[in-house]
Specification:
The complex is a heterodimer.
Chain A: E1 4-7, E2 10-14, E3 19-25, E4 32-38, E5 45-51, E6 56-59, E7 62-67, E8 72-77, E9 86-92, E10 102-103, E11 107-112
Parallel strand pairs in A: 2-11
Antiparallel strand pairs in A: 1-3, 3-8, 4-5, 4-9, 6-7, 7-8, 9-10, 9-11
Chain B: E1 5-7, E2 10-13, E3 19-24, E4 31-37, E5 44-50, E6 53-56, E7 65-68, E8 75-79, E9 88-95, E10 105-106, E11 110-114
The chains are: A mainly beta, B mainly beta.
């Protein structure tokens, strides 16, 4: 089955700097990669996703990149702000399928003022 | 639209006791998922329902965990008897149909502490 590995587990960046979180997946059949943000005590919320027919997707300060050959995908947050502090989860699944979403272990991002 | 509702929010029980969690998905969402999130880890799928049928329960510890969705709407997840390692947040999620492309919405979760 699919296995998703995520790193780093913790990340601390200065406010205004960029943050990068990286994930790898094992199942070459996976073709949908969502990213979730979970604030303390709250539910995971989808912030951005990418399908395997696209190499990069941007939404304001966040962007995701996907390298299908290497089975790598990454989340990039630019101009970080205090409200970006949270745990971020990458995940893998198959679009238009009964496949379940498999989550990475999470990255705790802290933004230093 | 109303979100995914879960109750209770918190539960503390002693080991070997039983506990039940309830989930009410978004109206019209055919697919319902129960995830277990242990502190410091990503959510792990326990069981997936399509209407009132089970699609995937391969990760459900069936000797102690059970779940049902009798009328294809609300669902309950039960643990009997509970173990210390069951301490986690139990998240319910729903989507219009199978697969992630139909909008996957999580509830706020039930935090279970087994002492």
């Amino acid at each position: 089955g699919e296995n998703v590995e995520q790193h780093p587990s913790t990340l601390s960046v200065q406010e205004g700097d960029s943050a990068v979180i990286k994930c790898t997946y094992s199942d070459s059949a996976s073709n949908y990669f969502p990213w979730y943000k979970q604030e303390l005590g709250k539910r995971p919320q989808l912030i951005i996703d990418i399908r395997s027919n696209v190499g990069e997707k941007k939404d304001q300060r966040i962007a995701v990149t996907l390298n299908k050959t290497a089975k790598h995908f990454s989340l990039h947050i630019t101009e970080t702000q205090p409200e970006d502090s949270a745990v971020y989860f990458c995940a893998a699944s198959m679009w238009s399928s009964a496949s379940k979403i498999i989550f990475g272990s999470g990255t705790r991002l802290s933004i230093r003022p | 639209e109303a979100g995914v509702a879960q109750s209770p929010r918190y539960k503390i029980i002693e080991k070997r006791q039983s506990v039940a969690f309830w989930c009410n998905p978004i109206s019209g969402h055919a697919t319902l998922y129960w995830y277990q999130q242990i502190l410091g880890q990503g959510p792990k799928l326990l069981i997936q329902f399509q209407n009132n049928g089970v699609v995937d329960d391969s990760q459900l510890p069936k000797d102690r965990f059970s779940a049902e969705r009798l009328k294809g709407v609300d669902s309950t997840l039960k643990i009997q008897p509970a173990k210390l390692e069951d301490s986690a947040v139990y998240l319910c999620a729903s989507s219009l149909s199978r697969g992630a492309n139909y909008g996957y919405t999580f509830g706020s979760g039930t935090r279970l502490t087994v002492v």
